[in-house]
Design brief:
With about 120 residues, the chain is mainly alpha-helical. It has four helices and no strands.
């Protein structure tokens, strides 16, 4: 299910036609971190996905690489800040997933209890 989220987020058919924002107002550092975290998660998902999903995720990775490269070259990009954020946050998603999984397990236990 998580793979489908990334596929729909970065699918080429889902692209918008553009935005009317000024180019220099793009938060390049934050976007780079977001894309790198998504890439990190997708690489983990690739290890245990079905073949068709893997092919879709490889297409998504190509889009992500292009976006990461674009943000890296942007004048608003700060490499030191971005890498600090990335290394702090790449493990934070694991904690968030664990707490979400724990909440789901707790809900399932409550549903299974006989009244």
């Amino acid at each position: 299910m998580l793979a489908q989220t990334y596929i729909s987020k970065y699918a080429t058919t889902n692209r918008s036609k553009g935005f009317k924002s000024q180019w220099h107002k793009i938060p390049a550092t934050e976007k780079w971190v977001e894309y790198m975290l998504d890439k990190h998660d997708i690489n983990k998902i690739l290890m245990h996905s079905e073949f068709a999903t893997k092919m879709d995720l490889l297409d998504v990775l190509q889009v992500l690489e292009r976006k990461i490269d674009y943000m890296y070259r942007h004048p608003n990009f700060d490499f030191k800040e971005a890498t600090d954020w990335f290394h702090r946050l790449k493990n934070a998603t694991k904690v968030a997933n664990l707490t979400t999984n724990q909440k789901l397990q707790d809900r399932n236990k409550k549903k299974r209890r006989p009244k």
